[in-house]
């Protein structure tokens, strides 16, 4: 599969994850829910990584990069969960999905040349996402929209760093060791914070099936982006994965009844056209 195809697979998995998140975040503690999701993903990744991971190639540089990937993913996840708790989806999902520009910038810093046309396509993706956000009419929110946007920006920045540094580590040692170490690093940050919440189990048991599904989808999506590391233009996996924002909005429209203005559909077409260009 191409890097872009893997990114689109990740986008679909994260879109379903985020739809579940929008529902769960209104009924359960954010940090405990995130802890369950991360632990579920770890239970899926660790046995496979221990059995077939290329641990002999793990260098000090790869270890540090993997740990940083986990920390970035922890902060990205907190931003994601808090933004979706406040909502609405049509406001925060496009912002979080706007990280491809950062991903391409980081790829350029690493020395992987990014053509002007690729930059233009990434900007068009962002433009489509912006149209969806600006024309959003659903005003349902669990708090300040400015605060929701701030959390969404934190999530976008964290995801860009996660993908760039994680793919760098993967090229050194393989995806499974990186995924395992990154997952453990994220757990080491989130679980202690979750245990310090006032009521860490509020709503968790009741929504455990959804949280387990979210953990599996999250592990699948992050794994898809990491697997793209040795392919041509691995940053395109991150660009493709950014479509999760639009897919989440579409699912929220169909399942949760969150409205979309007619012009928003134009933004959806614009973004997917640019992603299709990158694939070509």
In total, the number of strands is 0
Spatial separation of the terminal alpha carbons: 13 Å
| Strand-residue proportion | under 5%
Shape: globular
Based on helices, strands and strand pairing, what is the structural class?
Answer: mainly alpha
**Major β-sheet, in short?**
none
The portion of residues assigned to helices is over 70%
Descriptive notes:
- The structure is a single chain.
- The chain has 280 residues and is mostly helical.
- Helix 1 (3-24) runs antiparallel to helix 9, helix 1 runs parallel beside helix 10 (235-241) and helix 3 (60-86) packs across helix 8.
- The protein is globular.
- The model has no long low-confidence stretch (mean pLDDT 83).
- 78% of the residues lie in helices and 0% in strands.
């Amino acid at each position: 599969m191409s890097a872009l195809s893997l990114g689109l697979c990740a986008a679909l998995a994260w879109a379903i994850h985020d739809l579940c998140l929008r529902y769960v975040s209104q009924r359960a503690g954010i940090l405990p829910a995130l802890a369950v999701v991360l632990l579920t993903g770890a239970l899926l990744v660790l046995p496979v990584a221990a059995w077939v991971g290329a641990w002999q190639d793990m260098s000090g540089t790869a270890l540090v990069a993997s740990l940083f990937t986990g920390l970035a993913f922890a902060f990205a996840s907190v931003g994601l969960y808090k933004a979706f708790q406040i909502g609405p989806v049509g406001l925060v999902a496009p912002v979080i999905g706007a990280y491809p520009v950062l991903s391409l910038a980081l790829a350029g810093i690493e020395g992987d040349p990014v053509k002007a046309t690729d930059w233009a396509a990434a900007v068009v993706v962002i433009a489509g996402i912006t149209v969806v956000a600006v024309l959003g009419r659903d005003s349902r929110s669990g708090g300040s929209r400015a605060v929701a946007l701030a959390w969404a920006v934190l999530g976008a920045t964290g995801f860009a760093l996660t993908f760039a540094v994680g793919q760098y580590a993967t090229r050194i040692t393989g995806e499974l060791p990186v995924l395992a170490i990154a997952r453990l690093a994220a757990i080491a940050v989130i679980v202690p914070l979750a245990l310090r919440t006032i009521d860490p189990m509020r709503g968790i048991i009741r929504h455990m099936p959804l949280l387990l599904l979210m953990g599996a989808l999250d592990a699948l999506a992050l794994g898809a982006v990491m697997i793209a590391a040795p392919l041509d233009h691995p940053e395109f996996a991150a660009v493709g994965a950014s479509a999760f924002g639009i897919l989440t909005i579409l699912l929220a429209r169909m399942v949760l009844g969150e409205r979309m203005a007619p012009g928003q559909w134009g933004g959806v077409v614009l973004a997917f056209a640019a992603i299709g260009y990158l694939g070509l």
